[in-house]
Amino acid sequence: MGSKILLVDDDEELVELMRDYLQREGYEIETAHDGEAGLAAAREWSPDIVVLDVMMSGISGIQVLRQIRTESDVPILMLTARGDDADRIAGLELGSDDYVAKPCTPRELMARIRAILKRTGADAAATTQAIIVGELKIWPAQRRIERGGVELSLTSTEFSLVEILARNAGRTVSKAELSQHAMGRALTRFDRAVDVHMSSIRQKLGNLGDGRSRIQTVIRKGYQLIVE
Fold this sequence. Notes:
This protein is of the alpha/beta class and 228 residues long. It is 41% helix and 21% strand. Helix 1 (12-24) crosses helix 5 and helix 2 runs parallel beside helix 3.
């Protein structure tokens, strides 16, 4: 069987549609129709990715996301209402890897799932060579990063963004390039996902010895990882 996908949504008809489609594509699927069942499945089944609806009866998807993030770094793809920026930003800030606006097609959802699984190594192997930038040491194959010998905890999307910046250390990388290569989708107008992830990454990486952030914003161009 392929990668293990947990679908958590209280729209049972939608879940069945998505499950049938993804199973035909070779994935192993588990489903849950409320937040409590979703949490239990995430703990017991150890999926490779969780697809989690924001709006559910009982505990919300945001609450489920917050709890999962205290226990696991499993990739999480949020399903949000179209145009609901508040839920999208809240999810990203709490550690979701990306979002898809509902209603969405099974093909669109599968494409986003594949992009996340590819960059997390669940569907494809990565290079084993470490990338070193100052105090930062990054192992793409293991999805591990250390700063000064101390391992850091990043979500899969945060790791992918840092990896791209590290491979281009000292050079500005555009937001469009970061979105395409780290998140697997084209940058759209008013899309703040990269910016929200970068805010979290800055906090986790800490500052340089002179107090500057390791990641600099280059206005109207993108972001740059500073070479110490």
